Records
---
Amino acid sequence: MAREFSTVGVVGLGTMGAGIVEVFARNGIDVVAVEISAPALERGRATLKGSTDRAVAKGKLAEADRDALHERVHFAVGLDALHSVDLVIEAVPEHLDLKQRIFAELDRVCRPETVLATNTSSLSVTEISVATSRPNQVIGIHFFNPAPVMKLVEVVRTVVTAPEVVADVEELCARLGKVDVTINDRAGFIANALLFGYLNHAVAMFESHYATREDIDAAMKLGCGLPMGPLALMDLIGLDTAYEILDTMYRRGGRDRRHAPVPLLKQMVTAGLLGRKSGRGFYTYERPGSPVVVPDEATPLATDAALADGARAIAKVGVVGSGTMATGIIEVFAKAGYEVVSVTRGMEKSAKVCEAVKTSLNKGVVRGKLAEADRDAALGRISWSATLDHLADVDLVVEAVVEELSVKKALFASLDEICKPGVVLATTTSSLPVIDVAMATQRPADVVGLHFFNPAPVMPLVEVVRTIRTSPEATATARAVCAALGKTGVVCGDRSGFIVNALLFPYLNDAVKMLEASYSTADDIDHAMKLGCGYPMGPFELLDVVGLDVSLAIQRELYLELREPGFAPAPLLEHLVTAGYLGRKTRRGFRDHSHR
Ligand SMILES: NC(=O)c1ccc[n+]([C@@H]2O[C@H](COP(=O)([O-])OP(=O)(O)OC[C@H]3O[C@@H](n4cnc5c(N)ncnc54)[C@H](O)[C@@H]3O)[C@@H](O)[C@H]2O)c1
């Protein structure tokens, strides 16, 4: 029989604590909510009220239930109020000495059988536990932000946590409607160990002006289907908390440089820019605590006129290539009203591409997404050719041939001979340096990367890559074209992986390393990222879809360009590729897909 926790104490009512109070009270558990001072207590009470009022306004909570919820919460200043609770969850700032002091005090105040839990994200639960005389009753219960929404709870057992305490807490999680993964005490547990290297890397991109905050966030939302971009997420977490987590992970997690907090973070924390809770972080908010972003001096002008500023007029577009990407890109341009010249290496290939475009457009008609007349008009705008000479009068060329530098360079040299002056020449490469392709021409200022995602007609994102030679006009033209295609164009520098792959693949590689270290299982890691961070797919699901060979190749490129030791491909990934386990396409990758 599991022990029933009927009264729970929560210490610290900040970003996490207030949400944790709500989770318990919503599920019929009495809560004693404790803060350090009367003003802090009032802030906590206001946060709880704001959150439950929003739930009522959205129709997710009945008024009577909200009132009953509030009646279950008893607010107090100081730990003494916790003398008779069954379980305490501590959610004070991420400092070991502070937490140790609080646990020593809790040990004195609380009954001997009370379980003491910490919501720490990165500190050692073991080190916190030894501040008490009951380390076997100390456990980590790591909720995710926002606690009332995110389904995951990481239950962290130390080497001395009693098995019945673990079982009782697991039972409690189920009662709260949460899904738990139980793991050992390691810096960052599952989710944060995989998340924070990525978040820190995104801050480094922003700090180095590699891309704007809006573009970094849009890239990850639209390219990976994440619920929010990394910088918006940092603001939600709180930059002070994020700093402490990174700092602890760096020190506890083997001094991986990727966890060394980016200097900008420290500066922002010192300047009081803590994210949402202070009203300003990477973005500016309506007021402290508000989720509503308001424009500030860094907000780009989003008007059509601003987008088109300096852009050249584009009416006719050449698309070179006959693969999946070329086919999708031809369709995208033709549907958006551009005249398109498709160039392949022979009329047979042209016929195949033409068939593929027709099939895809017909699917749109069958699904009721495209009128027959629009399909016919789109097809009517495309001409099919097997020679580059037909690109003499286009305004933009999009190259989507095989991913080989020598082939692309030769093609760009030919385009340079054939195309009229002022044409923007774009490559869709996902891994080669755009500058190499640009320097194969006499007009590097006109060369950009246009990195479409697969399938091009569906994915809303295009990365616009500007090299150190690309002119502002060529960049503006590429952006304006993306907007005209109904896509979001994000501008970034010419570095391996651009934005999305550079941020995504190291995270996937880290997940493989975590599996390889036997810290957790593929299922639990996938669960943690989906339920704790709102990812549409877990890392192992995604790796099997993308292909392990493709993932390994991208990770190798990143490693070779940046020489970051933490980017070295996981040996397990290399072995699976060597063994021919490439993912869904070979029916086996991290999982066996032969029966599905
Ligand atoms: N922010 C996140 O996204 C997130 C997610 C999961 C876990 N965590 C962890 O939760 C914990 C709290 O983080 P947070 O982001 O909520 O911090 P926060 O700064 O938003 O809130 C901390 C609260 O603790 C209060 N406090 C400080 N000293 C206290 C004391 N002696 N007694 C009582 N209350 C005290 C502060 O007044 C403040 O309200 C940290 O360990 C953090 O790592 C944070």
Note: The longest strand covers residues 30-35.
---
Amino acid sequence: MPFPQERPRRMRRTEALRRLVRETTLAPDDLVWPLFVLPGKQVRNPVKSMPGVFQLSVDELVAEAQAGYAAGVRSVILFGIPEKKDAVGTGAWDEAGVVPRAVRALKEQVPGMVVMTDVCMCEYTDHGHCGVLKQPKAGGPGQELVVDNDATLPLLAKEALAHARAGADVVAPSDMMDGRVAAIRTALDEEGYGDVPILSYAAKFAGAFYGPFRDAAESAPREGPGIPKDRKGYQMDPANAREALREVALDVAEGADMVMVKPAVPYLDIVRQIRDRFDVPIAAYHVSGEYAMIKAAAEKGWIDEERVMLETLLCIRRAGADLVLTYHARDAAAVLTGKPR
Ligand SMILES: [Zn+2]
């Protein structure tokens, strides 16, 4: 043993010593709980692929948020499932739509809760894409349709504005259109909502981990003539890290107050690289597929759900995330605070 004095183990001997030198903490304040809201009253539809997750009507959503608040959750992010869908996603900026109604109800009945809203078109378009579709000019005839980036921007701005008017604390565009942070920032500022921050889904990767979410939000791209079968034309390639840094730099320059990486665990290297280069708060979205895998393995008795959940969330924080969006939020908060879930 050449360096007997070098013995990091010494500081692991007792829990008190371990706590003394612990580098990363996990607290309920770090967690954001995604919730799905749909029209109706007393609706509580379980999402099959996500045990413990429900599609909720506004009244049930308020009750769910109150239970979460009692367990220690201090932030939620809302996804809407509208009554009707159409080609341009008109429901997205309906001020009487489910999301603005849910925001108003939460701000009134759970006043301590930070209410974020997801801003995107895919829940509201009948084709399920994150923007309006058009015939492409590049590539000649016979191409499949593409999302019209620039025509989508004003629609996203209208949606963000509808959420801000309802009282949203943070708006979170997830569409991955270029220029949307600037478009939303300008629209908010012009209407007097200069104090509403933007959490941009800056590095959102096109991958397979969103499957269960699309059941929950009913937002999977629909099959049809010319309709792109996936979102690879606007979401990021899982192979790319440098491009993620470029996306973050652009969003920060456009006025993003916080940036997000989505999914979380397979992309922790991206979180770390962003942490090392940027000073804005970073969010990581522990997505539905990641949640479903933990739930399924736990159901089979193959892992200890509680320990794997806390370790996963802690490690996302260690990689550099300030906040973690997770379906485990209420359960994790309850464990961390010792309160009932
Ligand atoms: Zn979308």
Note: The mean pLDDT is 94.
---
Amino acid sequence: MNNFTSSLNNKNKFLILGCGFSGSFFAKTIRQLGCTALTSSRSEKKDINNFVFNSENNVVPNKKIFDGVTHILSCIPPDKNGKDPVLRILKNKLESLSLEWIGYLSTTGVYGNTKGDWVSEIDHPNPFHQRSHKRLNCEKEWIESGLPVQIFRLPGIYGPGRSTFEAIKNKKIRVISKKNQVFSRIHVADITNAIIYLLQNKNSLKFYQIINIADDEPCSQLEVIQYCYDLLDLKMPKPILFEDAKEALSPIAQSFWMENRRVSNKLLCETLGYKLIYKNYKLGLKNCYLNS
Ligand SMILES: NC(=O)c1ccc[n+]([C@@H]2O[C@H](COP(=O)([O-])OP(=O)(O)OC[C@H]3O[C@@H](n4cnc5c(N)ncnc54)[C@H](OP(=O)(O)O)[C@@H]3O)[C@@H](O)[C@H]2O)c1
């Protein structure tokens, strides 16, 4: 665990826009540091710290929600037209606040297919899928907004409650093999902790507007699934070749297999000095196994 000093404190108020899997983990952790964190969802929740924001039907948060906000983390994906929902609806409001920082969770899909090569932040984005073009457009909108935004490009997110174990338990697992295919991943705790590390050290570290958060070891999906079966002490079903399996996959599932890249974390972990909690899928999945 990285050591947090006290530069984030109860004077900081965070709005977590889009409090799904990553947002909830971040909100929980930032509160433990003494900060206030209000979270949004598209429908009402029984949680006094939650408010409704839904760009699909223009439900906008009450003005009071924004009082004293210092930090915003947006975890909301692009809308169907490739616009950023937060900027489309709340840009003027955000400009009127004295914000210290905005974090935007993006995806490493913007790099496109590198046929297994490493990609880093200095590589030109080369989106392949339509959804990644939309994402790159949202990144551009955030950068051009002139707001104090930092963009985090994320590969496949997993953690307790959302991992291969759930797929096995719910009988949704597909054991597919495709030669030389790798995926990068990140444990949800490392997304939160990396961001907090950067905020805690904001004054001493050089500011980078775009940062990948990925673990050290991109690898095949098969290795990950095999490891989960081993932990469960169960026999893994025989893998099916991708070519034989692809017809039965949904278009979205197929699309993930059409890109092959290794996401570099050197900027975050070497240049900026963040120490991953879960350096690889084995460490991360052990945590999921113990907390599922
Ligand atoms: N999952 C992955 O492996 C992965 C990988 C790379 C990047 N990402 C991206 O990283 C971000 C966080 O990922 P995640 O998996 O933690 O997300 P998530 O669990 O799907 O949460 C997304 C949040 O956005 C809210 N939201 C969606 N559309 C909205 C709209 N039009 N207006 C207002 N709120 C809206 C959802 O509201 P409700 O709570 O009401 O549903 C939810 O709280 C997302 O942008 C995601 O696309 C995800």
Note: The two ends are 21 Å apart (CA to CA).
---
Amino acid sequence: MHVHIVGTGSSGTGCWMRVKGWHWPLAAFMTRHVGLSRKAFSQNFDQVYVENLMRLVRESSLDKVVILAQDLVHDPDGTPRKDLGSFYVPNDYVLQLAKEHTEFLPAVSIHPARADALDELERCLEAGAVMMKCLPNCHNIDCNDPRYEKFWTRMAEAGLPLLAHTGGEHTVPVINAAYADPRVLTLPLKCGVTVIAAHCATKSGIFDREYFHAFVEMTRQFPNLYGDTSAFNVPFRGRHIGKCVQPPLSDRLLHGSDFPVPVYGHWAWMRRFISWSELRRCQRSGNVLERDYQLKRAMGFAEAHLTRVNSLLRRRGVVVQ
Ligand SMILES: [Zn+2]
């Protein structure tokens, strides 16, 4: 899970993307890294991106991937801020993609400050959402705001898990850096929501604060807290892999991708989490989804790490009170 859909809005998908400054070479690099040609931006990008992703899933060891919508940044009073944020992916687009393609499971994205947040949640539940994704530090969400209690309670009742970004972030603009702290997720946890802290609150850039240990502490306090290993194959996030593969922490972690974020096993090899021959074998795969999977196995994550998410996703037909 944790596979991003991005789009330019070609063919009326409703997506948009705003790439500025040094993010241009990064975006071009990521596009090539996932197997798209440089021409993708001048073609029907949204369709090309989805077709390429489906091919990668089919040619990998994965059966399905959870694809993510991306809501707009909102002010705490609920005002949408189209001037902030770097990309937008409507809920209807991921819900539609999941209806059309069996490779995809839909994770919607709803800023809880939205005036229509509860209505949108009901609509997405009805349409088959399996998860809700947000980035508190980039969306500007103080999840502990008591005004959101009703929203989290409804998610808990419906069995809809929350995938929340934690730790530093450098591919999407940060609006409130303090919300990188996993303790921002305390209220949804107390309301009974199954929460998955994306990246286990690890640092992304060299100057980011490290919240991994705060996350580990919270897993002892909250049995409904999990962490995903998305983007663990970038320079800093994988620093704690040695601890992550050991129980009891390993029982609370699950495989996340963060596609289209680059996947290089060199960082894990440099920290001696994998051998040179394992690095060579994994790097030979040009399919980034498969390479990430193979690297996680080589690092020592058990097979259960890859399937654990199945027990957390919302199922249709869950009893609603
Ligand atoms: Zn992500």
Note: The longest helix spans residues 45-58.
